[in-house]
Amino acid sequence: MALIDRKLAQEAADLQKALTRHNYRYHVLDDPEISDAEYDRMMNRLIAIEEEYPSLSSPDSPTRRVGAPPVEAFESAAHTLPMLSLDNGFNDGDLMDFHHRVSKLLLEKNLLYIAEPKLDGVAVELRYENGLLTLATTRGDGIVGEVITENVKTIRSVPLSLFKTEHHGIPEFLEVRGEVIINREDFAALNQYRLKMDQPVFANPRNAAAGSLRQLDSRITAKRPLNIFVYGAGSVKGLEYASHSELFKILQTFNFAVNPLIRDNLTIHEVLEHYKELEQKRKSLPYEIDGMVVKVDSLAYQQQLGIKKRSPRWAIAYKFPAVQETTTIVDILVQVGRTGTLTPIALLEPVKVGGVIVSRATLHNEDEIAKKDIRINDTVLVERAGDVIPKVVKVIESMRNGSEKKFVMPKACPVCAGEVKRIRGEAALKCINASCPAQRKERIVHFVSKGGFDIDGLGRKLVEKLVEEKMIASFADIFYLEKDRLAAMDRMADKSAGNLIQAIETSRKISLPRFIFALGIDHTGENAAALLADVFHSLENLRKADVAEIEKIDGIGPKTAAAVHDFFVSPENAAVLDQLLAKGVEILETKKKADNQGSPPLKGKRIVLTGKLETMTRSEAKKALENAGAKLVSSVSSKTDLVVAGKSPGSKRDKAAYLGIKIIDETAFSSLLKSE
Ligand code: IVH
Q: Is 118 close to ligand 1, i.e. is its CB under 6 Å away?
């Protein structure tokens, strides 16, 4: 018996290793060595062995890719380091500006860049602890993401464990970031299958990838043709590299899929040439890309440049031009938004723009209509750029035949018939009745939307119905909803009611930027919400802030400051906020960051030393810091105030740069100690 077990154990181990390798050859290298039938035969044998002897399975066995039993809801997890976004450039001039900016900051004329296709998919982060994939998350709001580990494990090009080679040891901790995509052909086949099964089709490969990753049942995800290309790292312990291109080389040895169109060692002029090449190749690529990402290659330079609020200074996305098509305007209707703004919307003869059917486009306001002389029945050029709402670029006047009708904005609110006013200095007409049902609905739709409380299953239609049936009137009412009353609604199954209650429950924990965004304050989008959260750290502080304090924030204008202040001083809003907190809405507070300007006095500061100091020993440095009332701490976190980087600093310096924590060298450190 013992002998059979040992033989079987060996067979299982051999099969696991061989299948992992064949899987990699097929899904990453696109160069299989064996037939699909042979692969299936080996896999079935391994499944049979592991089923009979579960102890012979391992957490990274290729059999684990079939999916796990469904979960009730996704858990949230804070990213170790924020997942940033990128600044955009739209022409060569923007790229040259970027180049001049970074060259000047670095005092380096001959900078070298790495250029990568900007993949149009869904960002994920993969955490490997001692080589084993232990956590996978979505980007979420960049600070907190959703845990989708089981779903990600089903993606064949994601290594379940890091491949060991003689080149590198296995790092103790490694977070790899990448983009999950679906190839065009697979996307077409998936939609065809869905049509056949009477299921709604996906609008584009990115939506299909996002929808597949957000399945509560990972066995469904396992059936979706998902792929990944990795493009960066989060927090890293136990791995050294000097450049982004070197990181890619290391990731490749671990068996990650690195995009073949990445070019390094490029001057800015070569970057611009590569852009043209990429643009030409774009249509013939098997997957969709929406631009090129350009990064300063040297890690030391990246650290020196650091990050701004939401994006690194060392990278830029050079976007491809938007896709345009012509169509006709069938009618123009007027929508009332959550702040009462009346927005004219063009109803279009449906047209496919960049793979997505477009049947509406915003016309913004009456000035815009007048400026472009847009009329009903006009033939127009429409444009869609990525996620942006489609817009009318211009009227094709030569196509006019006399049937066109001028459009006039209504004199009263089309929903509540209340008074409309044009606010001084603004182009928009506004319905000034704050309890206009349209505004009420829109505010709630916004509150539960993706950037806000992100309540699954609570879409526009259901919100409208709940408001109409008087089941909700304010934000807080959402948290008073009961399953039985929901289930009693028309066309609401018991299960959906249960799921909705569960989704509401999960949404209770929310990051501060999302919470602020969800409130739908005038002029306060995701960016402003993030800035406010960065500065005030808690709702309590924000509620107490005066206009001047808010207006002081870099990036917040007077209009936003006034709107934010007005919002929080309103007694009705205060009551709703109190109700939300009373109903257990829990705001995850953002940690206080170090001041980036000027030299902070050392008293009470948490300081990390990394690398070798030349003019003093570590214990001397520690003593000096203690004398100055500072605290020497060993690891960098968002609570760290200052990092002193000596010679050959390690990953602590990277982490500090990512977190936007002030980094100084030994000379600056010495003078800081002297000034104390
Ligand atoms: S780097 C700090 N590289 O674009 C830099 N991002 O707008 C962070 N993306 O969320 C991103 N291809 O989902 C990077 N080669 C690439 C990319 C890429 C696609 C996406 C990614 C990110 C978004 C940033």
A: yes
Q: What is the DSSP string of 576-622?
A: HHHHHHHTT-EEEPPPPPPP-SSPPP-TT-EEEEESB-SSS-HHHHH
Atom of ligand 1 nearest to the CA of 312: 2
Locate tokens 């009961």: which residue?
482
3-state DSSP helix/strand/coil percent for the chain, to nearest 5?
40, 20, 40
In tens, the pLDDT along 158-187 reads: 999 999 887 778 999 999 999 999 999 999
Scan for tokens 């496919």, then name that residue. Answer: 352
Query: Exactly one of 7, 109, 118, 237 is catalytic; which is it?
Result: 118
With a CB cutoff of 8 Å and minimum separation 6, the contacts of 400 are: 378, 379
Shortest-distance Cα residue to atom 18 of ligand 1: 118
The C-alpha atoms of residue 60 and residue 69 are separated, in whole angstroms, by 17
> Is any atom of ligand 1 closer than 6 Å to the C-beta of 585?
no
For residue 616, the model assigns a pLDDT of 84
Per this entry, what is the length of the chain? 676
- What's the pLDDT at 635? 80
Helices 526-536, 558-569: inter-axial angle, 10-degree rounding: 70
Residue 174 CA, ligand 1 centroid: distance in Å? 18
Atom from ligand 1 closest to the CA of residue 232: 1
**Is the C-beta atom of 310 inside 6 A of ligand 1?**
no
Tell me: the pLDDT tens digits for 30-63?
Answer: 999 999 999 999 999 999 999 999 999 999 999 9
- Active site (annotated) includes residue 118: yes
Burial of 371 (0-12, 13-18, 19+ CB in 10 A): exposed
Give the pTM. 0.63
| 76 closest CA partner among 508, 396, 464 | 508
pLDDT tens for 504-549 read 999 999 999 999 999 999 889 888 898 899 899 999 999 999 999 9
